[in-house]
Specification:
Elements: E1 3-14, E2 18-20, E3 26-34, E4 44-50, E5 65-78, E6 86-99, H1 104-108, H2 120-126
Antiparallel strand pairs: 1-3, 1-5, 2-3, 3-4, 5-6
Length: about 140
């Protein structure tokens, strides 16, 4: 069973078409999309195009914002008989790529500049500490220590 997904991000890199298989007749192409939401934690996804879909990236250029429709696939492998490992291959198989057209209003609209942060002295003046009455002689405070 495959699961169809969509994701939008910035196209980062498009690799050349690679011919695979015993007869080199199986075409694949990998491309990468940046979906980073926080600059300190980069997040790049590798997508794969197969067979007749390898040409979907021919009209694209790195830096464009794209929406990728893909299937999430996982296939088990077992190379323990050859002294290897056992695990699961995970692939993001793209089958459609749409360029996201940004409107001129979205490109040129900017937010107003943020207000300067108040200095600690200005914060204290705006929010003074509450005045506490001193405890009278013979009177206990409510603190347990």
């Amino acid at each position: 069973m495959t699961t169809t997904q969509q994701i939008t991000g910035c196209l980062m890199q498009i690799n050349e078409v690679a011919m695979k298989g015993p007869n080199k007749d199986y075409a694949t192409r990998t491309f990468y999309v940046d979906i980073t939401t926080r600059p300190d934690y980069p997040n790049y996804l590798p997508f794969e195009l197969r067979r007749d879909k390898v040409n979907l990236t021919d009209r694209l250029k790195p830096g464009q914002t794209v929406t990728v429709s893909y299937n999430l696939n996982g296939r088990p492998y077992d190379n323990t008989a050859k002294g290897g490992t056992k695990g699961i291959y995970l692939s993001l198989d793209a089958w459609r790529i749409d360029v996201v057209e940004l409107t001129s209003a979205a490109v040129y609209q900017s937010a107003p500049p943020p207000a300067p942060a108040p200095t600690p002295a200005a914060q204290m003046a705006a929010n003074p500490l509450p005045a506490f009455a001193p405890i009278a002689a013979g009177q206990e405070d409510a603190l347990p220590f």
